[in-house]
Design goal:
Largest sheet: none
Distance between the termini: 27 Å
Helix content: 55-70%
Structural class: mainly alpha
Strand content: under 5%
Radius of gyration: 16 Å
Number of helices: 11
Order of helices and strands: HHHHHHHHHHH
Length: 192
């Protein structure tokens, strides 16, 4: 079983399929100087490509794409683009637990990565962005080999608590599954 499957929700899966098929205005982002030409070239290699082609690119350039997706998630705030980036991260991780370290690797040049952009995504008003980010964060945090830093755990647990108290059944479902996976970690039980 894939670690991403720790959190499974039919609405999330259905929405993922719809988002995967929507175009993203990457060239417009480059014209607005939000995306560099190098980032645009990397994205074009995987954007709207068959999963088999994307997976073969990730075999050789996985770290490059993990960092790219997280950096773009950090700097782009349009909901449809955040949705797409989260889908790409989820696709990279689905059935490929060996790629989790690519996303959890700390970068001296980007101290906010990997968790900062995902935590921020959990607080956006869009429900898909919140829940997909929660699914990915649960996967990454539950797979961390070392102790989890409280500055990431506590805000995420607070977000999950808010989702459980909300009125959305899919949000409650994802939040409960996330807590179930995370509470196996001592740091999470102490923080809760």
């Amino acid at each position: 079983m894939s670690t991403l499957a720790l959190v499974s929700n039919a609405w999330l899966d259905s929405s993922t399929e719809k988002i995967r098929s929507k175009p993203v205005p990457w060239e417009g982002y480059q014209r607005a100087n939000l995306v560099t030409s190098d980032e645009l070239n990397l994205i074009k290699r995987v954007d709207r490509q068959p999963q088999t082609k994307v997976q073969s690119i990730l075999v050789t350039d996985g770290q490059t794409y993990a960092t790219l997706y997280l950096k773009l998630l950090k700097k782009l705030v349009r909901v449809d683009t955040m949705q797409y980036l989260l889908v790409m991260i989820g696709d990279a991780l689905l059935d490929h637990d060996e790629r989790i370290p690519l996303f959890t690797k700390r970068l001296d040049s980007e101290p906010e990565l990997p968790y900062g952009p995902l935590l921020r995504a959990c607080t956006t008003p869009d429900e898909f962005v919140q829940l997909k980010a929660a699914q990915i964060l649960t996967t990454l945090l539950s797979s961390e080999p070392g102790p989890l830093p409280n500055q990431h755990v506590q805000p995420f647990l607070n977000t999950l608590a808010s989702l459980i108290q909300g009125s959305s059944p899919q949000a409650r479902d994802v939040a409960v599954q996330s807590l179930e996976a995370l509470l196996t970690r001592t740091e999470c039980r102490k923080a809760a």
